[in-house]
Specification:
The complex is a heterotetramer, with two copies of chain A (218 residues) and two copies of chain B (333 residues). Chain A is an all-alpha fold. Helix content of chain A is 67%, strand content 0%. In chain A, helix 1 packs parallel to helix 4, helix 6 packs parallel to helix 8 and helix 7 runs antiparallel to helix 8. The longest helix of chain A has 19 residues. Chain A is globular and about 45 Å long. With 333 residues, chain B is of the alpha/beta class. The longest helix of chain B is centred in the last third of the chain and has 17 residues. Chain B starts with 10 loop residues before the first helix and ends with a strand. A six-stranded mixed sheet of chain B has the order 1-2-4-3-5-6, sandwiched between helices. Chain B has a six-stranded mixed sheet with strand order 9-8-7-12-10-11. In chain B, strands 13-14 form a two-stranded antiparallel ribbon. The chains are: A mainly alpha (218), B alpha/beta (333). Chains in contact: A-B, B-C, C-D. The interface between B and C is large, with 64 and 64 residues. The complex binds adenosine-5'-diphosphate (2 copies) and magnesium ion (4 copies). One adenosine-5'-diphosphate sits at the interface of chains D and C. One magnesium ion binds next to loops of chain A. Chains B, C: It comes from Arthrobacter gyeryongensis. Chains B, C: Pfam families: Dak1. Chains B, C: InterPro entries: DhaK_1, DhaK_dom, Dihydroxyacetone_Kinase. Chains B, C: Keywords: Kinase, Transferase. Chains B, C: GO terms for molecular function: kinase activity.
Chain lengths: 218, 333, 333, 218
């Protein structure tokens, strides 16, 4: 298949994201309680509910428009560190996608890169700082590899989702150097970063929305 | 978890609504997005002060809106920084044209959201200066952390910068005063218990009956380390010594001593801590010229306290003494 | 039990000592026996107000010593009324010759100790008038109880009578004002948790995670009955309805609404209760002319609150608004 | 034995009282926690420590002087309801004993009556109100009976102690109508009144000090 992904995919991605955030709300709160302030799941759930409301009000016409709408909703409803970071990520991805109705593998990999770069630009975290960057950077790399190897959009997303999940797991032993968990110093080791965990869920949703069998990336 | 609330999701809305009703003489409450502004704002010609942050630290920040302190406060969800779509209209609502200072506690979330808001407000033609409060000596300010947190000292920054704005200082001058306070205030806190975020429903951390958490922030996050319970005098030293160390307080210097309750500790215990803290300062030859004791920067119902010391000079003392009239801090009028 | 204390037996001494250090501009602390007097007392020609009671209710009473409120406060051991040997010298220390009012919360211990002290002070030539505060509607005032307890309303009595004394009213007149407040104020409280008296080391009562105690006093004693946890709005009705019933508040009347925290409840929750209470009053057509929200009459670290309503008239409103300058209540100066 | 009791007895009574208050401190706190405010044991212990200090400073010369000294110490150090009540009781007893160096059974019974009457005068409680009166009134009655039957001072005290202990137990099912426990209404039933319990201990100390075998009155 070389057929690209359209606005239906983007809307489905966001819809699945909202479902996953609701389902994993408590889990993300628990992760944040261990090394943060117990709100990440609540923030993400609230944010994606707002995304759903906006989607219902003004159905977007392109994937880029869908992501821009999500960016605005997340920026204004999530709050905390995650709000501006995800807001920037989705906004940069939307900008990268432009007005295209049909997103191929290359455009998709480019959007993922733009999203990751946005997070890094805002948050100044590096790989290994125990943040959502530890999910996004491996995801971007995996996506690029699949692209170079000639994979299609679904394969790009599947690889990104898988790598993000692995990346989230790799945060477990790390000592945080950015965000709230950094205040804990050594005590932050032994816990998964909540933002990396939510990032992995969001990328899984992207792959599932593109038709990649749900859960198989785990 | 038992709380005097109706629904975890409406806690902030209902609380701020009640706050607005109780203090209708001092503040106006805007809803959707939610923010609180000083009655009669903007004050012609005056630099405006805007602060905000996650809820759960009451009376911070809304309790400090009024004459001689903040012009607006922007409450986020509990322990979650507010968003630009709240901060921007709050900023616009209080700008008289003389510019707006954002007083931001140093947390990634607060910094990012205020940063975005400031950019966009500036794009709308408002002069915005941001002042970052980072008084918590429990956190090392290094490449390996997000930097020192803003904690108890925030209320001192807001009071003193508010007085400078009220007397008519320019945007740059008020920012300079605020930054001067930030440079000269340090804080450290202890928790005897965790606290429960309403939507989480379980305590942020659990402490055994003989454990306390040293070097906590104000979001129910665990501190730097956990130690066995000690007497109030010993705990006071543990908090105050690093504060004085870091500030480099010398004999003969004048200070403001601020013992702040985290929300669930009786006032009587705060005075026991104050007593020892004042003794330690006296032993070092420092002069406690001004004091503040009470629950001002809290973490919901957490038991514990923080100690802040601010190095005073005549200018800061005069600004501290200047009249203030807000729901939670009032004197001279 | 974890508390910021050194030794259960020195809690009151050390706390009052710290209090005196923090507020040296307003009060003098006497030791052995322990009591707190307004700086510069006796005030020439002024009727003096003395109150006191067990400790553990801070800021009550010492936090209300100062201009426009109390002249002296006499702290007992935690939850134990003070003794005549404290009350007598406190009374003598503040008497200017114009006489002294004892404001006594209606508990057997307080009544007996203040009664003895008043007798003995009078034998020494001091004119003493006692005013009994008994605002707690949770207790039936009948032959089968020690009568209604004095609870949250006490702070309103102290403020308003203090203003009458400050403006120069005679002993009888000040007593009359105080009694007028007592007649027009009612209170009811709820606990979400017990509290732990330092020397006892275990909580005064234990509540399950889904239980609350309705009709509590302020000494950690259990209340009238225990019910399943409810939302803040429902609890507010449970407290406020009997208060309004008992006071017989009618449409068009003006009131002061006081939501008081028991010590361990976040301010944000008190505002949620305030919101509903103000709504209920509005529904009944009553006008909330003045408000007070905060921790003023506490039970150590107990979680919960009380709601007081005071029927206002122009005289009481003016006395409420009169300047006051104490550690815990301050306005107009 | 018809020999009366002297100042040694009075001092021994107070000394034993202080010991019993210290030993039963926690028990009295627990009783007060159930239906009061958790301080009775603490208050009584503090009060009798003060009595001991005063006794050491100014050794009394008569039983009456010893009780007066105790009354003053209790009044100024116990606080709460119990302070003025016990203070009055001991003061009235001291007044009844006057300056006599040697107290016979009749004087003793009179002093007990005076003490009880003092408590009633101050506290206005009646028998059955679940207060210390429920220990003192039976004690006074038992003492009078023994006196009428020709018993000596030791027998008077032994009877008073025994009756006080029984009286304290009878408060268990009562609903309080005076003092702090009255706020509880029906919920005060099923708990012993702390003041009645401390009264029984104090009267037991009086009997023991007079030579009546310790604990046999139980
Ligand atoms: N500087 C940063 N760069 C990238 N991600 C960050 C940074 N700071 C925090 N994060 C991410 O944000 C997550 C926390 O989000 P959230 O709990 O919603 O916000 P807050 O920490 O303000 O409560 C962290 O788990 C981490 O993944
Ligand atoms: N009116 C009264 N008459 C007689 N005894 C009383 C009265 N009120 C209280 N008491 C006694 O005092 C005891 C409580 O003493 P204590 O706990 O020291 O004082 P408080 O109730 O002030 O805390 C009660 O158990 C009861 O025996
Ligand atoms: Mg968080
Ligand atoms: Mg947060
Ligand atoms: Mg008591
Ligand atoms: Mg008691």
């Amino acid at each position: 298949m070389t057929v690209g992904l359209g606005v239906e995919w983007a809307v489905e991605w966001l819809t699945l994201s909202a479902r996953l955030m609701a389902e994993h709300r408590e889990e993300l709160i628990a992760l944040d309680r261990a090394i943060g302030d117990s709100d990440h799941g609540e923030n993400m759930d609230r944010g994606f509910q707002a995304v759903m409301e906006k989607l219902a009000q003004t159905p977007p016409e392109t994937p880029g428009a869908a992501l821009k709408l999500a960016a605005m909703a997340l920026m204004s409803k999530v709050g905390g560190a995650a709000g501006p970071l995800y807001g920037t990520a989705y906004l940069r991805a939307a900008t990268a996608l432009g007005e295209n109705a049909d997103i191929d593998a290359a455009a998709l990999a480019g959007a993922l890169t733009a999203a990751r770069d946005g997070i890094v630009a805002r948050g100044k975290a590096e790989l290994g700082d125990k943040t959502m960057v530890d999910a996004w950077s491996p995801a971007v790399e995996a996506a690029d590899e699949v692209l170079v190897a000639g994979g299609d959009a679904v394969a790009v997303l599947a690889a990104a989702a898988e790598a993000a999940e692995v990346g989230a797991v790799t945060t477990d032993p790390l000592v945080a150097r950015k965000g709230r968990a950094s205040y804990l110093g050594e005590r932050s080791a032994g816990h998964r970063d909540p933002g990396a965990a939510s990032s992995a869920l969001l990328l899984r949703a992207a792959a599932t929305a593109a038709g990649f069998p749900e859960g198989s990336a785990e | 978890m038992k709380k005097l609330i109706n629904d975890p999701r409406s806690v902030v809305d209902e609380s701020v609504e009640g706050f607005g009703m109780a203090h209708a003489d001092l503040v106006d409450v805007h809803t959707d997005p939610i923010f609180v502004v000083r009655k009669g704002a903007p004050v012609a010609g005056k630099v405006a002060l805007v602060s905000g942050g996650g809820s759960g630290h009451e009376p911070l920040h809304a309790g400090f809106v009024g004459h001689g302190m903040l012009d607006a406060a922007v409450p986020g969800a509990v322990f979650t920084s507010p968003t630009p779509d709240q901060i921007i209209p709050a900023t616009a609502a209080v700008d008289s044209g003389a510019g707006v200072i954002h007083i931001v506690k140093n947390y990634t979330g607060d910094v990012l959201n205020f940063e975005t808001a400031a950019e966009m407000a500036q794009a709308e033609g408002i002069s915005v200066r941001s002042v970052l409060v980072n008084d918590d000596v429990a956190v090392e300010d290094s490449l390996y952390t997000a930097g020192r947190r803003g904690v108890g000292g925030t209320v001192l920054v807001e009071k003193i910068a508010g007085a400078a704005a009220e007397r008519g200082d320019s945007l740059e001058a008020v920012a300079g005063v605020a930054e001067g306070v930030v440079r000269n205030v340090r804080t450290m806190g202890v928790a005897l218990s965790g606290c429960t975020v309403p939507h989480a429903g379980v305590p942020s951390f659990e402490l055994a009956d003989d454990e306390i958490e040293i070097g906590i922030g104000i979001h129910g996050e665990p501190g730097r380390h956990r130690i066995a319970m000690e007497g109030a005098d010993a705990i006071t030293s543990r908090l105050l010594d690093p504060v004085l160390e870091d500030l480099g307080i010398k004999a003969g210097e004048e200070v403001l001593l601020f013992v702040n309750g985290m929300g669930g500790t009786p006032l009587s215990e705060l005075y026991i801590v104050y007593r020892r803290a004042a003794q330690i300062l006296a032993e070092r030859g420092a002069k406690v010229e001004r004091s503040l004791v009470g629950n001002y920067v809290t973490s919901l119902e957490m038991q514990g306290c923080s100690i802040s010391v601010l190095r005073l000079d005549d200018e800061l003392t005069a600004l501290w003494d200047a009249p203030v009239h807000t729901p939670a801090l009032r004197w001279g009028m």
